[in-house]
Request: fold
Amino acid sequence: MTALIELCDVSRAFGEGQESITAVDSISLAIEPGEIVCLVGESGCGKSTTGRLVAGLLPPTSGYVLFRGQDISQMDRAGYRRYRHAVQIVHQDPYSSLNPTQSVRQIITTPLRRHKQVLSRSQAERQALELLEVVDLTPALDFLNKYPHELSGGQRQRVSVARALTLNPAFIVADEAVSMVDVSIRVSLLNMLARLRNEFDVTFLFITHDLALAKYFAWEGRIVVMYLGRVIEEGPTPRVIRNPRHPYTQALLSAVPEADPEVAQRKHAIELRSANIPSLLDLPPGCTFHPRCPYFVPGQCDTAVPPLVSVVGGGSAACPIINQERIRS
Amino acid sequence: MSQDRSQHRPMTSNTFSPLSLHNIHIAYATRAGPVQAVRGVTLDLLAGESLALIGESGSGKTTLGLGIVRLLAKTARIEPGTITYRRDGQEIDVLGLKPAALRRFRWSECAIVFQSALNAFNPVLRIWDQVWDVAHAHGWKDDKAVRQRALDLLRFVQLDPERVIHAYPHELSGGMRQRALIAMALLLDPQILILDEPTTALDILTQRTIIDLLRRLKEEQHFAMIFISHDLALAAELADRVATIYAGKVVEIGPVHDIFYHPRHPYTLGLIRAVPTVSGDFEELTSIPGSPPNLINLPSGCKFHPRCPFATGRCQEEEPELERAGLNHYTACWNWPEVKREVEIHPIHGKTQSTIAFSETEGGP
Reply:
């Protein structure tokens, strides 16, 4: 099966010369139709940049982005348009991603009309109502005339999702799509997104810093962990969560605050050698995690960038010493 | 840091309460009418305890925290209500304090660490200048002594003191700034520390260092702390007692174990069932239907009834007050026995009643 989206050795740099930083460094990632892939990492690790590369909002500095096996930079106009239709993004902040001067009706019918998904205004209206029902904004008729400021954060995010659905996408990049929404309604948003996957065959790239959310949303999918622009571990979600192999993934999982007092008491965070994240302007040589890694081996970790190597249980990790049984989870 | 603290406020005397809130109401005047952000909160903060106020955005938790140190916006009114602060056998009526006494109360008796460490510092002053400003305003004359205390505190929060004290805020990372802020809050050795969303917007590994720091603070210094957070995990990690706030009212309060494993209010139960955890098996989560209420136009009766699966006719008409539902455990729900039954049938994280360790003394909410 051809991957729906594939990143081949993609890098993206910002700035020039001395000031240049590589936000995404040689990432390769293939996402199959129907898959749920969750990209996790701390702020500044390049996860949002990766999402924007996938959605075509940023061109890569080097490497290729393939859509159904075709390089998007080599596509003709019609092909490129098909790709842009098929891949949509839901942004993090529902307070800035919707035009405050447009009503929900305008927000949803504009793309429908612009991309000739509908033949008439009344058809656009009918379709908008249907989409609002899909995202559980009911009664849909009440919401059509509302403006973003009249909606709560959760409702705005639903409008955002409805807008992403207008062009019948095969793929949705959800960039921290629920992190600004209240706890009590977060789950209903997640469950709604999961339903889209089942009912509309949408493939998801879900970007989050919250490992518990990643576990919940992508339990049947894959987790990809990024650190300072590189993928350092990936694999089936249950394996990554229960048996993380890369020391960074282990450190993250051991540090997550848990909403369960007894678990919180029992938990022991792995001590890192340094609490400071290196600057992207001055990355350490070799494995970029080595200045903080508790398993650091001089001469081995600080020389070459370790490649991703398959691990037991599925997926891969980029650590030169995990196979030497030095690290136990 | 000061050793005398633990002597005059030993952990064992759990009955002493340095801060009591009684029937606090706070309303903001807006063009659309008064917004009732806090509606009748009564609670006692016990010596040496850490109390978490959890609730969603707009629940009034930050307003309550700011109200305690009277830092609310001009449009806010605290009325009616009393805040009583106690130290060394003296009682102080916080709401009656004159400006000079209020300035002394803030920071030296009750310090607050604001949400968003990014904006809490003055960006054009070095950390030292900000420390000195505070100390000077509170009557310290000896800059060497202040400096020594600041260096000690920065070391205590695991920062490189010599470097940080001369740094501008922008030279510090988010986690370092948060730690510097906590160090500054401790400068005048307050009895009470209020922390508003201390870990929000920080990365996981940084959150962990802040949580560990606060835990150490709690164990070594015996402050009474109030955490304000929307994050249940923070409460689970650090709190001795948890108060759930909904629509400006404490709807449940109790020891952290009881709240997390044996909640007696449908809203608390809903929150716990809506939050995923990393450890343990995959658990299906359920969300709370509807959205938080409009504070200008609150529903009748129990403010949670439009979203509550346990709601009955009475809930629409009468608002319940806190009533006892266990040792030191209070809930404001007409149907809490139903909630209890539900938790017994479907235990939270597999915990049954027999696993509770009751605390020995009984106090008020």
